[in-house]
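Escalation from tier 1.

The customer reports that the assembly of two entities below gives different structure tokens on two consecutive runs. Tier 1 could not reproduce it. I'm attaching the input and our single run for tier 2 to review.
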Amino acid sequence: MHRRVIAMLGVVAAAIAGMGSARGLSGGVQFPSVQPGRMFQFPADHGAHPEFRNEWWYITGWLNRPNASPVGFQVTFFRIRPGFEEDNPSAFAARQILFAHAAISDPAAGKLLHAERIYRAGFGLARAATGDTDVVIGDWRLTRSPDGKFHAQAGGGDFALDLSFAPTQPPLLEGESGYSQKGPKPDEASDYYSIPHLNVSGTLMRNGLPQAVSGSAWLDREWSSDYLDPRATGWDWTGLNFDDGSALMAFRIRGAKQENFWAGGTLRDSDGTVHAFGPGDVTFLPVRRWQSPQTGADYPVETVLRVHLPAGDREWRLTPLFDNQEYDARRTGGPVYWEGAVRAPGGSGYLEMTGYFHPLKM
Amino acid sequence: MNRTVLNWIGTAELRAHPGRILLTASAIAIGVGLGFAVHLVNASALNEFSRGVQAVNGDADLQVHSVTPRGFDENLYPKLARVAGIADASPVIELAAQSGDVPITLLGIDFFRAATVTPVLLGRLALNSSAADSLSGTDGLSPDSIFLSRTALAALHKGTGDRIEVESGGKHALLEIAGTLPGVSGDENLAVADIAAAQWRLGTQGFIQRVDLKLADGADLGRVRAGVQSVLSPDAEIVTRQNAETRAGTLSRAYRINLDMLALMALLTGAFLAYSAQALSVARRHGQFALMRVLGMRRQSVLTEVLFEGAAIGIAGGAAGVFLGWGLAAAALRLLGGDLGGGYFSGTRPELVFDPAAAVRFFVLGLFCAVAGSVLPARAAARAEPAIAIKQVGDPADPRKRPGAVLPLVLLLAGGAAALAPPINDLPLFGYLSIALLLAGGIAAMPLIARVLLAPFRALRLPAPVDLALKHLWGAPGQAAIALCGMVASTSLMIAMAVMIWSFRNSVDAWLVQVLPSDIYLRVDSGDGDALTLEAQQRLREIRGIAEIRFRKNMPLWLSPERPAVDWMATQMNGHDPSGILPLIGKTVAVPAGAIPVWISEPAHWIYGYTPGQWISVPLAVQKRGQARKFFIAGEWRDYGRQQGAIAMDLGDYTALTGDQLRTDAAIDLAPGADEARVMADVRAALPPATSRNVTIADSRAIRAVSLRIFDRSFAVTYLLEGIAILVGLAGVAATFSSQTLARSKEFGMLRHVGVMRRQIIAMLAAEGALLGIVGVAAGIGLGLAISQVLIQVINPQSFHWTMDIRLPLPLFVFVAVALIAASAGTALIAGRKAVSRESILAVREDW
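Tier 1 run:
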């Protein structure tokens, strides 16, 4: 379950909600809802699904540098269909809004370095093409070449990324063959697949100096039209690549009392066996908390993740690359959340925690 | 020891004649004060305007703006965004709009782009608006939302959450006030909405009016400009904040500089007055100075003493002038507004901004004038032979010698030559130099002129007092010249201004008759904001009592980034024949077949160098390939209404080119016997209610009256300056007379001793005054006529780009002549009554 998009909708949510109350829901636009049993087709599903309300291409991972400690990174591209006044013939009409976020978790910096872009699609300056991955947002882009590699260019300010991602495994369909439920209602779901164990190569630019980097990454692809259940106040998500080739995705959605409101996940073993988890199969147990000096939010930065498998429970202790991987996006209309590189015994990945500063409201 | 003595002389002079020194100082103060006040008011008004520009522009690094209100092709936006060195580009719809009767500048922006390029234009969502019912935060992408500046909210008497109807170009949209624009300062009525909504509901599909640009860090502005320029179509141009300010400045610059110059003329009069006062004071103290010289004081010290006195007067006058200027500026801003009645910055009431640098400048100028006025007297005092001077108290000039003609002739010729020079930087600086030289030459020629003018009287048999007066003036030419110079300077300046204004007013009046041939005129004040649609035009045509109605489209068109927009007028002509509609001057050129003819106004000719017979490229209705259109200049017409220039074309051509059916003006001819008032009421009633609130409907007589009233108002400050100059001049004459008569008490005593009666002496003084007055008026009017020609033929065309027919205000000449002669005779009389007292009989005894 990602992620910030739903909160990042804050950038446009005011408008959408304003529309909703002012002239009926989304100006009468009908968004399709996600249905179970859908057949995924590639490369078409690597491309955009513009009829849905929201969609993302979400890459997280670790980068190894010569003569330096590894850093975490994320490059995330989002698409939103606000759905208002789609009859407006203006080329400026915001039929699709595209935004992207990139961040580096460098222990030496002790905080996240980040940059973002947001555009309305149009004029060739921003687009999310259908058919295959081809997302352009100003000078940022994410594409997929015929050889199957993904390429990302992003950055600004004090860093820039120019990375290629070579798949080593087939796409992993999350939930029930790609139908991933986020709440008790069948509508509260997304189409969701991941590509774990991407081999990363490319350049990380820091303060004007290029560094050759390599590493391992995780791509999440998700699209849907429905929001979280109104009772949800936040969520935790993790995606982990293990050294033996297995991959684990787990999430939980918290309710008003921080209880497990919904949960889910998938484990693909090194032999390719897929285990899907239901709401009762995933537990996040806080081990150590860290309070952000910037915002005062209190995050369980060290967590034991326990999943229920037919062969018995398995658990991993997730330890952060460093504590201060909080991002305060309030200045650009986003939420306050923690998203950072984590280690697990025999593997590494990313952990996202939202709703610890204020309950996320939909 | 020397210093002490000099101080003593100076202090003694101040103690003996405080009034005269005070008057000289106040003449300087008035000059400095006027100049400084005019400068302060202008600086404050420009400052206010510049803040307004900043508010609308949102403080972008660089801006590309359309040259017409219609805008340019929106596909320029991605091209600009891709120019190297551009970090981000923000497309903007900029429309003249209104809500109710409140004119509003409506900006349609892409909030995402504006967030990085012009964040001050971002609105803050109000908590009570429906758009805020959601997440905390931002921006109001909703097509229903509009954000208003504080000024606009106040003008509309609305609050956030209210709905307002906004109109532009005949389109309407009902929008909810979603919040305010906290980043917008100043008094601009500004509204911000989403660009797509603004384009669809109020703008033109496919067109935007501007793109704001943010430079990449460290980008070279020059290179980026060149890159931007290379992708621009002719209907778009680069605008920086400086450009916009320059444009505003250009519009009023000539007017401001001219006011400044007039103020400096007042200061010049002050300098002449300082001269005459110092010259007299030196003449009276010849004995004193001679005595000091005999006692061992050096020539240099005498020179220093007199210059020091001049400087003291200058410091006092300059300092007082700065305070006076500050007060005058504050009062003028309150009473006349930021343009001093010139009509350039309508509606703004700027805050007074003190300018220390200018204060110092004007203070130094005052000091300089006072010292410069003292130079000649100081040299005269230093040069005098002590042995002769110690005995002599009379006029140092030898009456047997004919006064020199070389210096005045050189000055006058130089003045004439300066008038022929071209403008510098669009300003008639040489014209003003010419006026100053003519003035100096005229005053230098005063002794000679006095001789020439008085010579005919010597042949006449005159009553004894008058004869005595004549002989005195003849015998003491230097003193006569000194007494006259302040008066001649102020009179000639006044006459020159009066001739210019009278000629101008008559030409404007004649022009108004020519350019307003119809009975009733209608104008949409908000321009395109609420122009007449086809439907409205049809309704107007159907009104009973209208014999003919001719519509016109007026719009601003930018031809140069540095200059204000010309007024582009598309007007109904009978088959390309503008005679009867435009006051044509010069010859008309035959239009080549297939050409689209335009007619340029006189200012457009001067400003852009256009001449009839020429082809010009104009960014009107730019063709698909991005080429500007060619138009043929078929003729030129006189225009006093649009100083920035105007170009007229046939309405049919315009509509064919642009497809634009909106009209901003209409001229109505009444059917015979129609009731004018009734038709005007019907016209107003036939308009849509919103439009009807924003139109001016007036009959041509009323327009003429209003125009002339505006004309008079804009010259009100000029009249004020002139009046003050005259008063200063007269005060100079009075001061000169009183000090001269006091100095001549020994002479009066002698006359009494030889049997001349007291009454006769007073009559003699009155006659002297009257004779001086005659000489002064004659010289002043002559010099004034010469200067008026410089004003009319040089300064007006060079700074305002128009010409006029010369008319002489003869009644005013008579009035000025009579008043000045009477005033100078009167002051001489009053001074004489005081001087011819019993002591004068005793005074003759005092001798050494």
